[in-house]
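FORM 7B: Structural annotation worksheet

SECTION A. Query
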Amino acid sequence: MESVEKPRVRVVGEEKVRIKKSFIKPWMGVKYLFRKPVTIKIPFEKIEPAPKYRGFHTLNWKTCVGCNFCGQICPARAIEMTWMEGEKRPHPKIDYGRCTFCQFCVDVCPTGALGFSENFYLTTGGLEEDLELYDWVPIHPDKVRELNEKFGDYRFPVERIEKKGDGVYVYHLRDGSRIEFKILGYGLRPPAAAKPKPAAKSSGGAPKE
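SECTION B. Predicted structure
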């Protein structure tokens, strides 16, 4: 087998590279001072998203069956099934620090409970409490649509997430309304706090009326 001859590469040292000095090039950037910027001043300016734009998720809690198909197909592992007080099944929670907005989870949802909105603005001040917005349980699509009709800027529907003690969260929406719920645990199996307590056994005899 014939050996392949490697090409000879000559590396020129930096001291041998001549840089031509120019007094005109630094001043060529002055012309851009008088041109209109092409960037969007978020959040002061907005653009209309394309139809069916893949933005933030919405969720109908009543029709969600907690099958975790969305969590299984998510390539970024951005979905975590969450048990909440008063709910018989877990619901997905989306981590937008990991989500790639591929919407595989929406396509695979068997009941159509998980959807997506055209909202795409999510800007924060960088504070620790602002980071809570990136990890949330989606709200009903009708409420997101109502907020879009009122504000029309396609921003994130939740203005602030208040984390209270004992797993209680309060979503402060942009119109001043609130959604409060208590997280009991995570995973497919219900946590101990979500399991119904067995009826107390009587010491003997028939129960008193």
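SECTION C. Observations
The first helix runs from residue 69 to 73. Residues 46 and 152 are 9 Å apart (CA to CA).

SECTION D. Sign-off
Analyst initials: ____
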